[in-house]
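Let us practice reading a record.
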Amino acid sequence: MNVEKTKKKNPSYAKWGYVFVASFFIVYFLFTFIPQIMTIFDSFFDYADLAGTLETDAKFCGFKNYVSLFRKNDRGEIEILRDFGNTLIMWVIGAVPQMIVALLLALIFTGSKLKIKGSGFFKTLFYMPNLIMATAFAALFLILFSTVGPFHQFFFDNGWISEKFDFISDGTSARILVAIMNFVMWFGNTTILLMAGIQGIDESVFESAKIDGASSSHVLFDITLPLLKPIVVYVLITSMIGGLQMFDVPQVLTNKAKNNSTRTMVMLINDYLVPSNYGHAGAVSVILFIVTGILSLFVFKSINKKED
């Protein structure tokens, strides 16, 4: 009797945890997991000749869609390799300065010597560009850097360009503009994450280093950066995943750049979806998923490799 009374007095609430978590798994299963499986399934079927017919009439074609992606087009280019190179280049140009600037800002606003006040205000200020829609940002840059925009006039007046120059259509400048936009939009988010990581380090570690006479450079390279490594890995991998899925900025800003220099992998997928060629779109998606996984594993292993 006493045991039964004790159980009634101390009921288990563990089941409610599963109830609350279940909503996430249900949504994930319906709107993420099933579409992923269907994408892999569609990549093995030929939908190219189904205009006006039912999708159930698609024929199994094995790896035909994957093989056709690596064939040269009329210009002698392999589109998927060209677009992957474009995506990687634009991500690297924007991500490298983003990490450097974000790390410097994080060190400045968390430094005990400077003691900058109002860090909460600056966090909000840095994060604000991330709240603006990418399409709106792209439309703004499209106006600023057009042939009749203020930047074109400024460069012309200062003699930096001698004739009409289209920043949007030129391949090199278009890539740089896309990278600048990604930098402006995301450096604030990266800064906040790195600041949180630095503030999560036990203050006694820094105090012990100061007592031992460690210089600021030693504290940075021997204490801060090694302890910040998990956050850096997370930021790099998530940044790379977002960069490989780049679509809205180059689509709105530089859709007509010369030599397709700003076309990305997702833009290639979108092109295949327009004529309802789901097989090729699914194949590109699967390849993008595999490449993202390999690169993420490479970044993780490279930064977390064991030292002798």
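A brief commentary: The chain is about 70% helix and 0% strand.
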